[in-house]
Automatic annotation (TrEMBL):
This is Phosphoribosyl 1,2-cyclic phosphodiesterase. InterPro entries: Metallo-B-lactamas (IPR001279), RibonucZ/Hydroxyglut_hydro (IPR036866), WalJ/YycJ-like (IPR052533). It comes from Brachymonas denitrificans DSM 15123. It comes from the Bacteria. Residues 13-195 form the Metallo-beta-lactamase domain. Pfam families: Lactamase_B (PF00753).
């Protein structure tokens, strides 16, 4: 058994993450979010060594455009099942192209993808019914948590079990306050249903830090309201690690493959 993951690109402009789990001769491949053009998504999958037809399933975390992206077109073109909550499906207008491909996910109901088990969980975010994920090969667990305004007790309980973590470190509060964002948008981003600041991400990471927590990949960094070094500093301090032990997913190229 083995499970690994790779960000294909992450940030306010677009998000996609690939998770691959192998058991014997069988490999399950899950694409989480499709926040880029079909061309870019295909290119980045191929750069990761995966053809669209090799995907077992797609999971859309919520309806914001940096996550749903090209999913209705991409999934229909390649005939890939797409999991999302009923709330997300309604919020994107129940796209006809997904009629025979959509599968409904909800908090607390595990999804069996063959050699990967996916456990969706609710996060506090300003979307209709957002879900983030715990992915497991039956032995090791990967936590995925972006787009959440705060670390609820439920989020912490889900992530406590993970051996690797892709975690949002969205903004630096001072940079956000000084930015040219309109006041309503600043309040939204910093609010309880917005995005995790570097400090909030660090506090969450510290809460779930344990001896068997391996790779931590900081993701969904704001290009305007954050600096990679600020996100890295906050997380390394919270986890008691050196700078090169916390990685950052970039908008342009995501991350390397990381084994859970
Ligand atoms: Zn987002
Ligand atoms: Zn969002």
């Amino acid at each position: 058994m083995a499970i690994r993951f790779k960000s294909l690109g992450s940030g306010s402009a677009g998000n996609a993450t690939l998770v691959e789990s192998t058991e014997g001769a069988h490999t399950s491949r899950l694409l989480i979010d499709c926040g880029m053009s079909p061309r870019q998504l295909t290119l980045r999958l191929q750069q990761a060594g995966v053809e669209p037809e090799q995907l077992t399933a797609i999971f859309i975390t919520h309806e914001h455009s940096d996550h749903i992206g090209c999913a209705p077109v991409f999934a229909a073109r390649h005939r890939i099942p797409v999991w999302m909550s009923r709330g997300t499906h309604a919020a994107v207008g129940r796209p006809e192209s997904l009629d025979d491909l959509v599968c409904f996910a909800r908090d607390g109901e595990a999804i069996d993808l063959g050699s990967m088990l996916v456990q969706p969980f609710t996060v506090p975010h300003d979307a209709r019914e957002p879900l983030q994920l715990l992915c497991s090969d039956g032995d090791r667990q990967l936590g995925i948590a972006t787009d959440l305004g705060h670390a609820s007790a439920h989020v912490i309980a889900m992530l406590e079990r993970c051996h690797a973590l892709l975690l949002e470190a969205n903004h630096d509060p001072d940079m956000l306050a000084a930015s040219r964002y309109p006041p309503f948008l600043k309040r939204r981003v910093a609010g309880d249903f917005g995005h995790l600041s570097n400090g909030a991400a660090a506090a969450l990471a510290a809460r779930i830090n344990h001896a068997s927590l391996g790779h931590v990949l900081a993701a969904h960094l704001s290009e305007r309201n954050n600096l990679p070094e600020l996100a890295a500093q906050a997380l390394t301090a919270a986890l008691g690690r050196s700078q090169d032990e916390v990685m950052l997913a970039t908008a342009a190229s995501g991350s390397i493959w990381l084994t859970v």
